[in-house]
Amino acid sequence: MAVLPASAKRWFVVDADGKVVGRLATRVARVLMGKHSPAYVPHGDNGDYVVVLNASRACMTGKKPQDKKYYHNTGYPGGLRTESYAEIMSKNPERIIELAVRRMLPKTKLGEKMFGKLKVYAGAEHPHGCQNPVALEVS
């Protein structure tokens, strides 16, 4: 099996300032899954760690900032809950990027491990400087 040891995992840092959420999320999801690596296997965790900065400054195109809704169900009858994009951005801007990336990852135990390697911060500061993260370019 071509799974890399934990010490071989690299760290990347992405600045979300002015970036479109969906395009940023697809690039981050590919790195978390390990699809950027020639050693990619779909059944192994070859992905790297990703730190996303300035999540509060990420943007959406078109009318999505006014119209987009996020849904979840509590499991009880009539338990559908909705939140608008603006509500989430005001309370917890990191959650927008986390939701976008999580929904692009596999819905398995392996996907949960991949999602655990994502670190999102609303500001420009992060506590992962000791890992020497490399800048990841997102268009």
* Strand neighbour order, sheet with most strands: 5-2-1-6
Quaternary assembly? single chain
Mean pLDDT: 94
End-to-end C-alpha gap: 33 Å
The tally of beta strands, per DSSP, is 6
Query: How many separate domains?
Result: 1
Main β-sheet: number of strands, strand sense, barrel status? 4 strands, parallel
Please identify, by name, the CATH architecture.
Alpha-Beta Complex
Shape: globular
Structural class based on helices, strands and sheet pairing: alpha/beta
pLDDT under 50 segments (min length 5)? none
Share in helix: 25-40%
CATH C-level class? Alpha Beta
Approximately what portion of the residues adopt beta-strand conformation?
Answer: 15-25%
Structural summary, described in words:
This protein has 139 residues and is of the alpha/beta class. The protein has a single domain (1-57, 92-139), classed as Ribosomal protein L13 (Ribosomal Protein L13p, Chain: A, Alpha-Beta Complex), CATH 3.90.1180. The chain has helices spanning 21-33, 64-67, 85-91, 94-102, 109-115, and strands at residues 11-15, 49-53, 69-73, 80-84, 118-120, 134-135. Strands 5-2-1-6 form a 4-stranded parallel sheet, with helices on one face. Strand 1 (11-15), helix 1 (21-33) and strand 2 (49-53) form a beta-alpha-beta unit. The radius of gyration is 16 Å and the shape is globular. The model has no long low-confidence stretch (mean pLDDT 94).
